[in-house]
């Protein structure tokens, strides 16, 4: 491999290329990054008509002691369903309540992770015709072991009343549940029952362990909140930003009908912008353009959708005195968010009204926010688009060989048109398993192609990002978790090899010879902000099944500069190309660092079979 460090052959990689894509899929947010532990906190998941299903809430008691139903008596206008509990038993007398009382419990998202010495804030809304005495407890998965408990006692809650309790856990159980029980006869209504750990990232509501997995990638941008989630199977179930801001208990929530689960929209428009800011990543907002999988708004009637998006932009970017900027400021963020990119729809290019609707959004946004870059859904990789756009989306899900060969996909993309945003890429099908080394290697090769074509590819993100292993709606995914554990698939770890690339200098590099074209390589140089030293990083994918002895010759270095050459080799490989990580063995396929034997202008490196080396 010949690497030329001279300035003449170098080109700056944009600061924006390697980022992430967060979609509410696989419980990435609800039951994932969003730390809310109660599933279906507002009893709305069973639909707006009552009586309704309260799943996953369950009843503690039998028909002689308790009748549980739902009605539409909530104090919240946008989510009217409340839970009604008619307690027939009492603390004494003929119909005495069982020990521990009767009531309801919520198992969270396949168990709540309650940890010893940590504090949990329980918030609930309650109403009753008489005095109440309710035990609020975090218990083990079978309900027997009490991890923390407190009593809510009130003489008069004839109007809906907000109650807050802090519970400190005395032991740990990763599959805990919340129980609300009583031994007092009467009628009680509950609504908007929440359990949040106090310990979330900066108190912003993000689960710490999952947040750090993202932070460790140092993403330049975060695309959100979908994907198909943004479109909906039907427009009535699409993500509507105005329904997702403000106090959590007032949000209506919605049924994400593409991925087939309810979300309380705890992660709403504000939280996504906040997440981007917390990650130091540029937000890329994908919005619905009046098109779902099955229905569309005619271009002649799309204006309310356009206005909704203009309002959402003002919410993000307007000053604190503007109508929507003041709403943001009241939510605790007076400074505008740094929103510079929006995507007009998702995968809608072929739809009947796409171009018409797109142009309405494009011109309205361009007029009000000329600094915003707009992303079209139409593929411009081989010919120029027939409509104005700053970038266009390119999505690719294919087998490993196809993704590997797509490292040349952008070599001939027109350089005089919009830039490419590879907003979704992944190896899928048999080659990926639930996250194989093979998939990661093909994707690494693809990203090396992205890096080499970063004069035209401005952004790239893997998809999907997260999966709660209890409800896998898409396979594979970069980060796998349950209530308390998390690991990265090889595709997650592969992305670590590109962390320094944003804003780095791409060097000229040539592979000669390249037996059976199974190698692909790139070289970058960057100055570390930590020690102010200049580093050179060569990345090579060996997609073949035999080891390769690679000679790396570096030319164009200044005098005495070999001292500063990086002397480590980091490899992502394993004994079997289909190897995966798991909760039992989360580090089976992770980058492994060793010292290089030779350091200088010429270096000999052995590339393991099926490996990514840098
Ligand atoms: O990443 C999963 C899905 O794949 C996205 O929602 C969609 O954009 C694509 O079809």
What do these coordinates show?
The protein is an alpha+beta fold and 614 residues long. It folds into 3 domains: 2-12 and 504-613, Golgi alpha-mannosidase II (Immunoglobulin-like, Sandwich); 20-35 and 200-498, Alpha-Beta Barrel (TIM Barrel); 58-197, Galactose-binding domain-like (Jelly Rolls, Sandwich). It is built from 9 helices and 34 strands. Strands 1, 2, 27, 28, 29, 30, 31, 32, 33 and 34 form a 10-stranded mixed β-sheet that branches. The chain has an 8-stranded parallel β-sheet with strand order 3-15-18-19-20-21-22-23. Strands 4, 7, 8, 10, 11 and 13 form a 6-stranded antiparallel β-sheet that branches. α4 crosses α5 and α4 (303-317) packs parallel to α6. The site of alpha-L-arabinofuranose has 12 residues, from loops.
| Total count of strands | 34
Task: Quote the beta fraction.
Answer: 25-35%
Identify the CATH architecture of the largest domain: Alpha-Beta Barrel
**What's the mean pLDDT score?**
96
Largest sheet: 10 strands, mixed
Associated small molecules = alpha-L-arabinofuranose
In the CATH scheme, the class of the largest domain would be Alpha Beta
Comma- or semicolon-separated keywords:
alpha+beta, 14% helix, eight-stranded parallel beta sheet, binds alpha-L-arabinofuranose, 3 domains, 614 residues, Immunoglobulin-like, TIM Barrel, ten-stranded mixed beta sheet, Jelly Rolls, globular
């Amino acid at each position: 491999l010949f690497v030329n460090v001279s300035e003449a052959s170098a080109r700056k990689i944009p600061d924006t290329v390697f980022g992430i894509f967060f979609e509410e899929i696989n419980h990435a947010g609800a039951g994932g990054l969003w730390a809310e532990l109660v599933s279906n906190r507002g009893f709305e998941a069973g639909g707006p008509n009552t009586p309704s299903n309260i799943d996953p809430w369950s009843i503690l008691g039998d028909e002689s002691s308790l009748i549980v139903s739902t009605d539409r008596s909530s104090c919240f206008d946008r989510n009217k369903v409340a839970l009604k509990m008619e307690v027939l038993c009492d603390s004494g007398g003929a119909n005495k309540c069982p020990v521990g009382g009767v009531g309801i419990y919520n198992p969270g998202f396949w168990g709540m992770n309650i940890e010893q010495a940590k504090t949990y804030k329980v918030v609930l809304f309650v109403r009753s015709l008489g005095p109440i005495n309710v035990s609020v407890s975090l218990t083990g998965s079978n309900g027997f072991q009490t991890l923390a408990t407190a009593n809510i006692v009130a003489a008069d809650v004839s109007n809906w009343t907000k109650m807050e309790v802090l519970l400190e856990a005395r032991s740990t159980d990763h599959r805990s549940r919340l129980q609300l029980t009583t031994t007092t006869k009467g009628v009680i209504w509950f609504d908007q029952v929440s359990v949040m750990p106090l310990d979330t990232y900066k108190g912003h509501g993000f689960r710490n362990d999952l947040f750090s997995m993202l932070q460790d990638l140092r993403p330049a941008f975060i695309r959100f909140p979908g994907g198909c989630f943004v479109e909906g199977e039907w427009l009535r179930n699409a993500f509507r930003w105005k329904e997702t801001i403000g106090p959590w208990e007032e949000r209506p929530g919605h049924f994400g009908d593409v991925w087939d689960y309810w979300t309380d929209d705890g992660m709403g428009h504000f939280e996504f912008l906040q997440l981007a800011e917390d990650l130091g990543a540029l937000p890329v907002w994908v919005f619905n353009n009046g098109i779902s999988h099955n229905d569309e708004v005619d271009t002649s009637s799309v204006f309310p959708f356009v206005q909704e998006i203009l309002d959402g932009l003002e919410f993000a970017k307007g000053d604190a005195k503007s109508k929507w900027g003041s709403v943001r400021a009241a939510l605790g963020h007076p400074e505008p968010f740094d929103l510079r990119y929006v995507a007009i729809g998702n995968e809608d290019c072929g739809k009947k009204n796409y171009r018409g609707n797109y142009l309405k959004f494009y011109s309205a946004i361009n007029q009000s926010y000329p600094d915003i870059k707009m992303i079209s859904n139409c593929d411009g990789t081989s010919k120029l688009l027939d409509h104005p756009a700053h970038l266009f989306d390119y999505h690719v899900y294919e087998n490993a060989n196809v993704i590997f060969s797509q490292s040349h996909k952008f070599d001939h993309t027109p350089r005089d048109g919009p830039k490419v945003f590879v907003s979704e890429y992944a190896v899928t099908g048999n080659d990926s398993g639930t996250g194989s080394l093979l998939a990661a290697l093909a994707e690494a090769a693809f990203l090396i192609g992205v890096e080499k074509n970063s004069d035209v590819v401005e952004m790239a993100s893997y998809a999907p990002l997260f999966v709660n292993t209890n409800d896998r709606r898409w396979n594979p995914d970069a980060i796998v978790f349950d209530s308390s554990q998390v690991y990265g698939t090889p595709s997650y770890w592969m992305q670590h090899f590109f962390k320094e690339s944003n804003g780095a200098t791409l060097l000229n590099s040539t592979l000669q010879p390249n037996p059976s074209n199974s190698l692909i390589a790139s070289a970058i140089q960057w100055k570390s902000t930590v020690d102010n030293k200049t580093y050179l990083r060569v990345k090579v994918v060996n997609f073949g099944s035999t080891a390769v002895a690679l000679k790396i010759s570096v030319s164009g270095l200044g005098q005495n500069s070999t001292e500063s050459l990086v002397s480590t080799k980091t490899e992502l490989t394993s004994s079997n190309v289909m190897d995966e990580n798991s909760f039992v063995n989360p580090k089976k396929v992770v980058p492994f660092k060793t010292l290089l034997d030779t350091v200088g202008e010429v270096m000999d490196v052995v590339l393991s079979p099926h490996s990514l080396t840098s």
